[in-house]
Automatic annotation (TrEMBL):
SUPFAM superfamilies, A to Z: GHMP Kinase, C-terminal domain, Ribosomal protein S5 domain 2-like
Domain GHMP kinase N-terminal: 102-178
GO biological process: isopentenyl diphosphate biosynthetic process, mevalonate pathway
Organism, scientific name: Actinidia rufa
UniProt KW keywords: ATP-binding, Kinase, Nucleotide-binding, Transferase
Protein name (Swiss-Prot/TrEMBL): Glucuronokinase G
GO molecular function terms noted in the UniProt entry: ATP binding; kinase activity
Pfam families, alphabetized: GHMP_kinases_N
Length: 303
């Protein structure tokens, strides 16, 4: 396949911070995994001009009325994915220039789509950036020149370019895919500029369940709730899970919870009933394996 003439598309899944979150910003250790239920995809097509295509829903610029515009901003904010793609292009270009990686290729049109719910702590923004990075790596044929372990830094730097406050954990999980152990000890971060990352077998995980406030958010919207009430809803999800004896924790910064039912299917049914009564969305976790290919694996250090 000639990347200079063929469309390239990559999908990156949401992630769950299973253990240690958010110690990635405090020189700690974490374990995260890819959540196959949700993903972002990016498509890159060679073109005469470099075009960043706005998403018809997430980058809406046409409205039915002024009140429609205001309601949209109140519920969704000002930000879509175009700014993420632009920031990633800048970070990618600068990294290649600084590391004397020659970018041979023409222009392209890049677009994205996503079904990762907003404000649920499932790393929707970084999924878009990571998928776009994969497209650029293939379009310019430099996947073998940019090591897997430094790619999360590129994703994070693109988000930092936009003032997004975050750590490396989510980006590592989405660059590697599957189940990943990460050690962000200070000596590694100081000496290497990144942590030590170890892919693990995804089948080590037990059956898990995702709870989210998505249904309530859709019905009422953030503007009507306010951040204080949304915080209370986060705690309520954990309480609902624990009320039936399930273990539960946030997937990330809030908005979704991952739960484990040690007593099996009967307990999971109790949890489903409790969530339906409370108005929370519930679904079994879909696990996905690592997304690294042979070229990626060759850039990894020996284990």
């Amino acid at each position: 396949m000639d990347p200079s003439t063929t469309a390239i598309e990559h999908k990156v899944h949401a992630r769950v911070g299973l253990l240690g979150n958010p110690s990635d910003v405090y020189y700690g250790r974490t374990i995260s995994f890819s959540l196959g239920n949700f993903w972002a995809s990016v498509r890159l097509q060679p073109s005469d001009h470099l075009v960043i295509s706005p998403h018809p829903t997430h980058d809406l610029v046409q409205f039915d009325s002024l009140s429609h515009l205001v309601n949209r901003l109140n519920n969704e904010g000002y930000y879509g994915g175009v700014r993420l793609l632009m920031a990633l292009c800048k970070i990618f270009y600068n990294y290649c220039r600084d590391n004397k990686i020659d970018l041979q290729g023409g222009n392209f049109t890049i677009s994205y789509d996503t079904n990762i719910p907003r404000q649920t702590g499932l790393s929707g923004s970084s999924a878009i950036v990571c998928a776009a990075l994969n497209c650029l790596l293939d379009f310019y044929n430099v996947r073998h020149l940019i090591k897997v372990e430094v790619r999360p830094n590129l994703v994070l730097n693109a988000e930092k370019e936009l003032g997004i406050v975050a750590g490396l954990q989510d980006r590592v999980a989405q660059v590697y895919g599957g189940l990943v152990y990460m050690d962000f000890s200070k000596n590694y971060m100081d000496d290497l500029g990144h942590g030590i990352y170890m892919p693990m077998e995804i089948n080590l995980l037990p059956p898990l369940i995702i709870l989210s406030t998505l249904r309530i958010r859709v019905i009422l919207g953030r503007a009507m709730f306010g951040d204080d009430v949304l915080g209370a809803l986060n705690l309520k999800m954990v309480e609902v899970a624990r009320s039936v004896g399930a273990a539960a924790k946030f997937t990330g910064s809030g908005g979704a919870v991952v739960a484990f039912c040690p007593d099996g299917a009967s307990q999971a049914k109790l949890l489903e009933d409790a969530c339906n009564e409370a108005g929370f969305v519930i679904q079994p976790v879909k696990f996905v394996p690592s997304c690294l290919n042979e070229l990626d694996l060759k850039t990894l250090p020996p284990q």
